[in-house]
Amino acid sequence: VSETGSLSIIVLGASGDLAKKKTFPALFNLFHQGFLSPDEVHIFGYARSKITDEELRDKIRGYLVDEKNASVKYEALSMFLKLIKYVSGPYDSEEGFKRLDKAISEHEISKKTSEGSSRRLFYLALPPSVYPPVSKMIKAWCTNKSDLGGWTRIVVEKPFGKDLESAEQLSSQIGALFEEPQIYRIDHYLGKELVQNMLVLRFANRLFLPLWNRDNIANVQIVFREDFGTEGRGGYFDEYGIIRDIIQNHLLQVLCLVAMEKPVSLKPEHIRDEKVKVLQSVIPIKDEEVVLGQYEGYRDDPTVPNDSNTPTFATTILRIDNERWEGVPFILKAGKAMSSKKADIRIQFKDVPGDIFKCQNQGRNEFVIRLQPSEAMYMKLTVKQPGLEMQTVQSELDLSYMQRYQGVSIPEAYERLILDTIRGDQQHFVRRDELKAAWEIFTPLLHRIDKGEVKSIPYKQGSRGPAEADQLLKKAGYMQTHGY
Ligand code: BG6
């Protein structure tokens, strides 16, 4: 990390799930790869529980080591844990944040290099209801006060609100305290390797340039599946549902990268300008292009009401009303408690006109980008079946990362994105107008679901979701291919 001076990373909500499972492990990985220098960095945990530094370290220790980093664990782990201090206090108390500021300032004095700038990164691993008071307290008591430069930045996690109105309210409250370049709205899908590869793939390959449009592409699917249910998160989940949890943010962000025009340059603002244009071109979702599902047994969770209509599965078709995409369905599909854990982008091409081989019932060309697990890209092609007969068969051009890039470890999304926040690169973060446009797309449908006007269909755990979703795909023109 190129800037110098002290760097304080403050994780608010330090004993929560997100901090333990994602934020601290990402910081640890950055540390042992040398991106966070012990000469500059200090990490602070802040939360309500009254625990000691050592107790916080004990809580997170088990999440920091896995097979991947086991060999370095003893040395790096104890060095890393020593950098962590804990301050306890409520999320709306002057007193608590004054103490936090004092702890940060002491660290800054001890770590100051000759430039003496002070960099303060606040990571809000908290529910959005406390964003406003916490941001107020940070602004009032904890911002960088060094005359010698530096910065104060805040990282906020989804859900950013529940609908357009609440999201805008949240944005205004935070926007009144911090400038847009200080606010990092994290969507961890933007940190995934193959999501980051999307623009390279599209704009650095001549092959795709003439094909990437309504003349050649029949439909696009962006699919997320998990093979487990809400598992103890029922209370949170029931308030939000799968559209707010996955589709409105993660899948929609991926859609932007698949559908956007070429940006003027790679500057974050140029890229985000193009993403906003895609979102603004999406036309209202029709109820007949939505299938919602809820897995059987979801309501057994005591925190979920018996009559909950909250979807744990949804397929929605988005239509982009512009020159490139008119008429091409973008099918966004997400589900919990499904048959497998998988996320991919599937771009299905149109049939070949004048098919002399009469082979089109074997399947179309389809370009699949597997985001996880086992990152890969493959193109389904029709080829001659090897042998004496002239028979055709579907095969694949396959780029599996595990085989092609043996020995290269793919960074975790959170690692990459936290490094970006320290470097001041907002390319992979959601801008305020992007967030607004994303909520504009889904809010009317979400309100209809909340009122029970669009119903969730029950489906079996471990299945493909409701059969109605497959029928919708068929109606949208998706041609099922082998093995999918
Ligand atoms: C989170 C959702 O944003 O993403 C979770 O809140 C979901 O419900 C998770 O499990 C999936 O992330 P990943 O990286 O495992 O696909």
TrEMBL record:
Residues 10-197 form the Glucose-6-phosphate dehydrogenase NAD-binding domain. The keyword Oxidoreductase applies. Belongs to the glucose-6-phosphate dehydrogenase family. It comes from the Eukaryota. It comes from Camelina sativa. Catalyzes the rate-limiting step of the oxidative pentose-phosphate pathway, which represents a route for the dissimilation of carbohydrates besides glycolysis. The main function of this enzyme is to provide reducing power (NADPH) and pentose phosphates for fatty acid and nucleic acid synthesis which are involved in membrane synthesis and cell division. This is Glucose-6-phosphate 1-dehydrogenase. The gene is LOC104790379. InterPro entries: G6P_DH, G6P_DH_AS, G6P_DH_C, G6P_DH_NAD-bd, NAD(P)-bd_dom_sf. Keywords: Carbohydrate metabolism, Glucose metabolism, NADP, Oxidoreductase. Pathway: Carbohydrate degradation; pentose phosphate pathway; D-ribulose 5-phosphate from D-glucose 6-phosphate (oxidative stage): step 1/3. The keyword NADP applies. It catalyses: D-glucose 6-phosphate + NADP(+) = 6-phospho-D-glucono-1,5-lactone + NADPH + H(+). Its EC number is 1.1.1.49. Residues 199-478 form the Glucose-6-phosphate dehydrogenase C-terminal domain. The lineage of its organism: Eukaryota, Viridiplantae, Streptophyta, Embryophyta, Tracheophyta.
